[in-house]
Amino acid sequence: MNLSEQGESQVESPQDFARRLGLEFNNFLLLSRALTHRSYLNEHPEALEDNERLEFLGDAVLDFMVGAWLYNRFPELREGELTRLRSALVRTEQLAEFARQMDFGAALRLGRGESQGGGRKRIALLCALFEAVIGALYLDTGLDSVRLFMEPLLEPAAEQIVALNRHMDAKSRLQELVQARGLPPPQYRTVAAFGPEHSKTFEIEVIINDQVYGQGQGTSKQIAAQQAARLALENFDLE
């Protein structure tokens, strides 16, 4: 059992979280804010702020830092290829996977309902948490700290994305390959939408020839459809 599967009373402290990941923080109040979801504030009035502003900042920091890393790491790639690869590395699912690999959910402070509803494993929440921690790290110790933390994650992720062509548009590739086999175009169907209005998560499935081949989840229908298409490419043996 990993740490994020423990009870709410055993949520990892910001200090233990930083120590486990080798992060040097000076301001643990800043890190605590990064680990606080909006739902926690509703039940704990002593908590002054959630992580949404830090999430906004972290998103911008990651865009710049990943772009700079790619520019230096892949000097042979043209602008369009760099843009697609950056998008793949900072997309919701990839950032959530980084958070999952390091069990960020163990330190996430959630309201009881959100926690009992499986919030620690939700892709959208894990992505937002990862961005917020990056935002806090940037404010506390600067861009170099973000770079040192991110580079070991980016190298293997970029290699896998390039090897599997995941930086290319999955929906377009799926449609081309399905049609090449003489089948009708893929159909995308929204099967669920949950969460508050300001932060909805959508689930979309892709149907090929009346059979479901992939289901995706994301903070927009477009993100969810792209994830569904990627899974369909794997499940339909079209890579």
Question: Which keywords apply here?
Answer:
239 residues, mainly alpha, Ribonuclease iii, N-terminal Endonuclease Domain, Chain A, Double Stranded RNA Binding Domain, 2 domains, 3-stranded antiparallel β-sheet, 11 helices, 3 strands
- The CATH class designation of the largest domain is Mainly Alpha
Order of helices and strands: HHHHHHHHHHEEEH
Q: Are there runs of 5+ residues with pLDDT below 50, and where?
A: none
Please give the alpha-carbon distance between the first and last residues. 34 Å
CATH architecture of the largest domain: Orthogonal Bundle
The CATH H-level homologous superfamily of the largest domain: Ribonuclease III domain
Question: What's this entry about, in short?
Answer:
This protein has 239 residues and is mainly α.
Description:
By secondary structure, the protein is mainly alpha-helical. The chain folds into two domains: 3-163, Ribonuclease III domain (Ribonuclease iii, N-terminal Endonuclease Domain, Chain A); 170-235, Double Stranded RNA Binding Domain. The protein is built from eleven helices and three strands; from the N terminus they run ααααααααααβββα. A three-stranded antiparallel sheet has the order 1-2-3. The model has no long low-confidence stretch (mean pLDDT 87).
Task: Give the helices and strands, then pairings.
Elements: H1 14-21, H2 28-34, H3 38-43, H4 52-73, H5 79-90, H6 92-101, H7 112-116, H8 123-141, H9 143-163, H10 170-180, E1 187-194, E2 201-208, E3 211-218, H11 221-235
Antiparallel strand pairs: 1-2, 2-3
Helix pairs in contact: 2-8, 4-5, 4-8, 4-9, 6-8, 8-9, 10-11
